[in-house]
Design goal:
This protein has strands at about 1-5, 10-15, 20-25, 30-40, 45-50, 55-60, 65-70, 75-80, 90-100, 105-110, 115-120. It has about 120 residues and is mainly β. The strands form 2 sheets. Strands 2, 4, 5, 6, 9, 10 and 11 form a 7-stranded mixed sheet that branches. A 4-stranded antiparallel sheet has the order 1-3-8-7, with no helix packed on it. A hairpin with a 5-residue loop joins strand 5 (about 45-50) and strand 6 (about 55-60). The protein is elongated and about 50 Å long.
Length: about 120
Amino acid sequence: QVQLVESGGGLVQSGGSLRLSCAASGSLFSVNNMGWYRQAPGKQRELVATVTRGGSTEYADSVKGRFTISRDNAKNTVYLQMNSLKAEDTAVYYCRAGGLATLLRTFDVWGQGTQVTVSS
């Protein structure tokens, strides 16, 4: 069983910053891709940023230059540094991780979500 625990959400003013963290625990042979997604009210869940075990990153166009994803492989933890936040960044942010729980079993799990609210 693999679990993801997120932290770091909250309320911030427009132009402010927040840092999200997500730690994976449980049966972890190898954690490969980790990422952040978000879902605003009335909208579909969308990709924010992903990072591979080797450090390759991908970002949504809407957050490029403002958000930075990083990870600590030793801690199986992924971070999302969010700067210059805008009202449209308001959403529930979800962590996602995939990899191998054992040599023969893969996993692809989501965190419970953390609310980010940006006031204008």
